[in-house]
Amino acid sequence: MNKIPLYKQIYQSIKDKILTGELRPKDRVPSEQEFMDAFMVSKITVKNALAALVDEGLVTRIQGKGTFVSANPNFLAEVPKSHTNAPSAAYYIGLIIPTMKTKVIQRLVDYIEFHVKEAGYQLVLHITRESSTEESRSVQELTNTQGVRGIIVFPTEDESYNESLLRLSLDKYPFVFIDRYLRNIDTYRITSDNWGGAYETVTNLLSEGHQQIALISPDNTNTTIEDRTHGFEKAYIDGNILIDKSLWCHVPIDILRNGDTSAYIVKFLHQHPSITAVFALTAEMARLTHHALHQEEGLNPLIELVSFDDPEIPGISHILQDEAQMALSAVKLLLEQCNGQYAPQRIEVPVQWIHA
């Protein structure tokens, strides 16, 4: 199986023809459609290959007429290879995120921007606001933008199999999933050890004598929540303890979006008075649960509350993610693809249990 990205194969094919003289100065390069048919790829893949050739001065593009070999394309042969591979100020990395509301995403954006800039690129940020339609539009805009070399994608919450993301993978376009990902797609992805963090948290609670442990989280519609939920369950299985899934509260997406989450959690807690501990799978769920336990009449404020991510409330033990390492790994793997390497990897960044 050819591990070279398809856009690189097209790029190299044209470049070889120019350097060997098969395509001479001012010759017209075959059309985008011809390359799409020959390599069985999408239009964005061909555009990316042609953009790389334009950036190197090998071809010029004339709107409405096509792509032509530059009048003097051979100057690159006199320039050291290390210089021609260096990014210029006109090179960009795209970052697609679902929101800017969480501390985790805010830190990821900060660290990613730092490493992208250190590598000599500029960051182009798109926010989808958890819309798969906006996600598709962002992918299309970035892949059609001159100078964009690759994309880091934090998928939307529902993680439907967005055709635009599938196409990036099939075309071997340089991109990396961060935090969330799509299952059964062989591509680059960086996540925290969500399964391990949840497993460790629940194991700690069980060792303290808790058995009636509630799980409170957004609806189980993305890989992050799924992995944390599976880690929760495996801790019970390994402890030979019967698990009561009626104590699991996955808040539906429509409830999350219409602002009724707090009331939904309060109702759940009132319906299950046997609960002795709560594991909130996100910091937002932890904050809402903490408010309910301490402000609502009839609820027990002594229930132990723990969280995946820091809810920034004193006295709550939590799992701490390493956003700095996630960002560094994502940029590193993306740049490897931009430089022609293609060997999909899955990296799980270790997390840390912080005991309050």
From TrEMBL:
<dbReference type="InterPro" id="IPR001761">
    <property type="entry name" value="Peripla_BP/Lac1_sug-bd_dom"/>
</dbReference>
<dbReference type="InterPro" id="IPR036388">
    <property type="entry name" value="WH-like_DNA-bd_sf"/>
</dbReference>
<dbReference type="GO" id="GO:0000976">
    <property type="term" value="F:transcription cis-regulatory region binding"/>
</dbReference>
<keyword id="KW-0804">Transcription</keyword>
<dbReference type="InterPro" id="IPR028082">
    <property type="entry name" value="Peripla_BP_I"/>
</dbReference>
<keyword id="KW-0805">Transcription regulation</keyword>
<dbReference type="GO" id="GO:0003700">
    <property type="term" value="F:DNA-binding transcription factor activity"/>
</dbReference>
<dbReference type="Pfam" id="PF00392">
    <property type="entry name" value="GntR"/>
</dbReference>
<keyword id="KW-0678">Repressor</keyword>
<dbReference type="Pfam" id="PF00532">
    <property type="entry name" value="Peripla_BP_1"/>
</dbReference>
<feature type="domain" description="HTH gntR-type">
    <location>
        <begin position="4"/>
        <end position="72"/>
    </location>
</feature>
<dbReference type="InterPro" id="IPR000524">
    <property type="entry name" value="Tscrpt_reg_HTH_GntR"/>
</dbReference>
<dbReference type="InterPro" id="IPR036390">
    <property type="entry name" value="WH_DNA-bd_sf"/>
</dbReference>
<protein>
    <submittedName>
        <fullName>GntR family transcriptional regulator</fullName>
    </submittedName>
</protein>
<keyword id="KW-0238">DNA-binding</keyword>
